Amino acid sequence: MLEYRLMDSETLLAAFDRQMRRDAVPDGPGAVVERVDGVVRQTGARHAWNGVLWSGLDEETADAAIAAQLRHFGALGVEFEWKLYSHDRPADLGGRLRAAGFVPEPAETLLVAPVEALSTEAEPPGGVRLVPVTDEAGIDLVKDVHERVFGTDGSRLRQRLLDRLAVDPESLIVVLAMAGEQPVCAARLEFNPGTEFAGLWGGGTLAEWRGRGIYRAMVAHRARLAAERGYRYLQVDASDQSRPILKRLGFVELGTTTPYLHQPR
């Protein structure tokens, strides 16, 4: 904990950039990570995450790099995302992406915490239990929670999770919070071999079940599992709803990230 508090946030951000973005590896079966035209990009199946993970651009090279990615993903006919962080350069990269036809989604906060500093003891409220998801029936419940919480189609997420459970189940832990037979929250923990970072994703709780400590219990449960695997840090792209909770739990804000989406023509 002391080492983390004394660590310069810029040093930690640089480690995140290097390990999770610049040196990224594919996040699913069949995906390919390439380093070309000043960016690191992932290309996969239509339902996979396709997009730009990192860029090392400036005012002179940005527009050409954007055009190159439009050609690459356009030829494949897939939606792709340029994952822009607040410290990326040039400073007007977001404006250049919008001018090229990208549409920004709401910004999220990049939060990181040392696993050893997080509580792993928080339990869900009475009547709620946390259960692992290991099969298609469980993934269908996760999809249902995702759609009800976030209001977006969960079909692509469902297929991505099924792919990973079938091919590389050790890289992913999916958890449901169940109230009786009703799923009320879904979350996952993604391991990134060769890095110090594991990622917390999902964590969406049905509106009528919020404020009861379910999300906090989900974080503690996943922190315990990350500690068992020897990961040093947990990383979250947090919404405005989860950011205050995570900061109270010990996560530190390192910046923001904005998904810029481009739809195939």
UniProtKB/TrEMBL annotation:
It holds the Pfam family Acetyltransf_1. PROSITE patterns: GNAT (PS51186). This is GNAT family N-acetyltransferase. InterPro entries: Acyl_CoA_acyltransferase, GNAT_dom. Residues 128-265 form the N-acetyltransferase domain.
